Write a sequence for this structure.
């Protein structure tokens, strides 16, 4: 039977070595830098640990291959998938099946009872139990005849049927005991089991593996939808916060135009008997840029605006001279809010309630925003200031006033645009990105931390502000 | 330390007062077996430095520590020529020919050993801790490469100094900047995070054994609650231990709103953080104690 998933897994040489190399190959495909030396290390490490312990096996591989937190996350995702697929491929090729016995006892399950058990297992974080219950849940669910055939959809349907959601739980219907809260990570673990079991069933039914897809950008990227946990966004940004705080230090004292530090030179000259043989220089202070951030908070960028606001929040901690503005139809300064409030939720709330940015329609009016910004702020702009716009440049058919934007760009030292849409969508529909991009010093797509870091490197590190 | 298996390493570490989790024990084990440096990353105060100290205690090796900071250079990290002594030698040996003096003043007698060279040249095996490597600049990292991969240092005037015994090298980083690929490539990577509830409890009780179990659990729960907030400086394990000892001194039997308010400054050390924590956690604690508490 021809297989849709590439010849490598089928005809490759047998044994673990080939499997591992394939795994590393896939990691490389996802952008993890796995060098030959890492692979050699991995093999050396595997000689030292018992392979019977899955935990040790995985940790030994991770310690030698994944050399950062980001890499580690990708590693986890791929490790699960790769070895699951490898096992399933083997099962298919040998014709091993367990279809008959799979859902034994699935007929007489009481849904309420199952719900309780699942909840219990999730709270306790018992992995084996969760796996068994996931099977039972699928069986009970299948009995109701609601399977859609699409794994992702089924997982969510089952979760909803079981009434599971993360966070604080609503009190039970009989008004009795309060249910303990469910941890999001644990719930995700349960969903993973569901997904896994559904996939396994699918593979058995069709006797083929589905083609292996690269990791979706979203899986590894920052969660951006407002319903997702803010904490996750914040963790990612706080890492960047520290980077921002130290960026630029590396460059210190390494540019031309240094001044000699006489005192330290004299002191150093004592080593050479009073002859100043080694000159000491004054360390160069990194320049603190003045930053103006304009953030679109309209509905078209809803999913991104939580991300953007938390970026703003992080920036405020790192740069003292930062003024922030939010806009939809009009623009409004929110620097105060950020300075006085540390809690992100409160900030988001205050901005939406008292920002005073949405007039009548609630649609973005970029042209008007530039006019207002130029009118109110432009006197403060000087060649040392950096303006950052966060928005999708969708004007809803209104006049973009690119010439006003050009004036802003001219007065500011640098102007950057971060667009939450992929470059592909720029200038489609009512997006007028091209008109603005001409006046920017740089326009970036930005919806993941990776994009953000790339951008941060440009702002804080590379090019000097004034030149 | 017996290094027969991961469990043995874990036990040996536990015996000297360091409760390692599975990955940490495994990486320590691999580091000894493969002779590779360990790069430990993680938030401040999760026991990165302590891991190196525990390794030194468990193996009975000396600990040589190099604290990194911005502007650290070879003269302070590797070696330096003792120029005063060299000058004296030149002046004292007036009659000798220049050739003799020249050969002589670049002998190891005139060499001041700094931590890295000391670790390499030590006749006994040691544990070398290079702390907060992310505080230095990239050039310094590059200088470390020879040391980390071959355990040797080249001194132009003297030649190569190779390690006679294999040191265990631990590098720690607070992840404040991205380390170079070249450095990472030579190391085993270990990410240490705040421990889960049970392990943190065990750690606290190890360091404050008199603390009542129920109170310890409650305390760790509160610390975890505090960590979940967005703070400038979340409380570390060391601070949990400090707090446990404080509670003992105070003779507290339960953590209620009042006790918390009095001792909060042990775990939270920023003014803005204190306000936030008082508002979020303090209020919660002031309410009647939960049944399971």
């Amino acid at each position: 039977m021809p297989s849709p998933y590439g010849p490598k897994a089928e005809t490759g040489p047998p044994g673990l070595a080939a499997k591992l190399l394939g795994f590393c190959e896939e990691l490389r495909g996802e952008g993890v830098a796995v060098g030959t030396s890492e692979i050699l290390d991995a093999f050396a490490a595997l000689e030292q640990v018992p392979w019977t312990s899955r935990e040790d096996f995985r940790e030994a591989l991770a310690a030698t291959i994944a050399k950062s937190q980001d890499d580690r996350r990708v590693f986890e995702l791929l490790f699960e998938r790769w070895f699951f697929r490898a096992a399933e491929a083997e099962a298919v090729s040998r014709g091993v099946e367990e279809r008959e016995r799979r859902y034994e006892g699935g007929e007489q399950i009481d849904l309420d009872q199952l719900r309780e058990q699942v909840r219990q297992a999730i709270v306790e974080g018992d992995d084996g139990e969760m796996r068994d219950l996931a099977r039972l849940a699928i069986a009970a669910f299948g009995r109701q005849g609601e399977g859609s055939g699409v794994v992702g959809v089924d997982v969510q349907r089952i979760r909803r049927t079981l009434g599971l959601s993360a966070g604080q739980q609503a009190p039970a219907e009989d008004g009795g005991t309060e249910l303990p809260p469910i941890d999001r990570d644990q719930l995700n673990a349960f969903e993973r089991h569901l997904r896994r079991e559904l996939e396994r069933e699918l593979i058995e039914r069709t006797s083929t593996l589905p083609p292996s897809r690269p990791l979706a950008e979203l899986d590894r990227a920052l969660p951006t939808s407002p319903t997702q946990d803010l904490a996750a966004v914040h963790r990612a940004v706080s890492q960047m916060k520290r980077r921002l705080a130290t960026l630029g230090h590396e460059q210190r004292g390494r540019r031309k135009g240094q001044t000699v530090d006489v005192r330290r030179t004299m002191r150093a000259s004592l080593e050479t008997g009073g002859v100043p043989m080694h000159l000491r220089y004054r360390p160069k202070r990194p320049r603190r840029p003045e930053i103006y951030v304009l953030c679109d908070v309209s509905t078209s960028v809803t999913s991104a605006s939580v991300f953007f606001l938390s970026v703003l929040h992080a920036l405020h901690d790192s740069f003292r001279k930062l003024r922030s503005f939010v806009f939809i139809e009009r623009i409004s300064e929110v620097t105060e809010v950020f300075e006085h409030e540390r809690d992100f939720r409160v900030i988001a709330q205050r901005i939406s309630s008292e920002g005073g940015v949405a007039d009548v329609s609630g649609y973005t009016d970029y042209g008007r925003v530039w006019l207002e910004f130029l009118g109110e702020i432009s006197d403060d702009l000087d060649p040392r200031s950096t303006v950052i716009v966060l928005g999708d440049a969708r004007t809803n058919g209104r006049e973009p006033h690119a010439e006003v934007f050009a004036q802003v760009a001219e007065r500011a030292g640098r102007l950057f645009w971060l667009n939450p849409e992929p470059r592909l969508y720029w200038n489609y529909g009512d997006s007028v990105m091209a008109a603005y991009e001409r006046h920017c010093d740089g326009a970036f797509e930005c919806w993941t931390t990776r994009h953000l870091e790339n951008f941060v490197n440009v702002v804080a590190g590379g090019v000097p502000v004034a030149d | 330390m017996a290094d027969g298996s991961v469990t043995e390493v874990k036990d040996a570490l536990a015996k000297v007062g360091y409760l390692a989790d599975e990955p940490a024990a495994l990486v320590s084990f691999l580091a000894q077996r493969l002779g590779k440096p360990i790069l430990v990353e993680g938030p401040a105060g999760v026991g990165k430095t302590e891991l190196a100290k525990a390794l030194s205690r468990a193996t009975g090796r000396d600990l040589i520590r190099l604290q990194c900071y911005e502007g650290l250079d070879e003269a302070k990290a590797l070696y330096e020529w003792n120029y005063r002594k060299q000058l004296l030698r030149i002046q004292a040996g007036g009659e000798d020919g220049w050739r003799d003096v020249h050969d002589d003043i670049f002998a190891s007698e005139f060499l001041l050993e700094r931590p890295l060279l000391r670790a390499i040249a030590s006749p006994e095996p040691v544990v070398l801790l290079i702390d907060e490597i992310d505080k230095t600049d990239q050039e310094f990292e590059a200088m470390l490469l020879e040391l980390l991969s071959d355990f040797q240092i080249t001194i132009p005037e003297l030649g190569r100094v190779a390690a006679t015994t294999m040191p265990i090298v631990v590098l720690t980083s607070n992840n404040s900047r991205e380390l170079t690929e070249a450095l990472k490539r030579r190391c085993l990577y270990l990410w240490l995070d705040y421990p889960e509830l049970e392990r943190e409890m065990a750690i606290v009780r190890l360091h404050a054994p008199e603390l009542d179990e129920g109170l310890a659990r409650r305390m760790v729960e509160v610390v975890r609650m505090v960590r979940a907030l967005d703070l400038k400086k979340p409380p570390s394990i060391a601070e949990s231990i400090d707090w446990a000892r404080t509670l003992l001194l105070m003779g507290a039997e339960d953590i209620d709103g009042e006790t918390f308010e009095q001792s909060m400054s042990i775990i939270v050390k920023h003014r803005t953080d204190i306000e936030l924590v008082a508002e979020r956690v303090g209020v919660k604690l002031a309410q009647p104690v939960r049944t399971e508490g």
In short: Chain A touches chain B through 40 residues (CB under 8 Å). Residues 1-12, 217-229, 247-254, 462-467 of chain A have pLDDT under 50 and may be disordered. The beta strands of chain A are 290-296, 322-327, 331-333, 385-390, 414-419, 442-445. The CA atoms of residues 247 and 457 of chain A lie 8 Å apart.
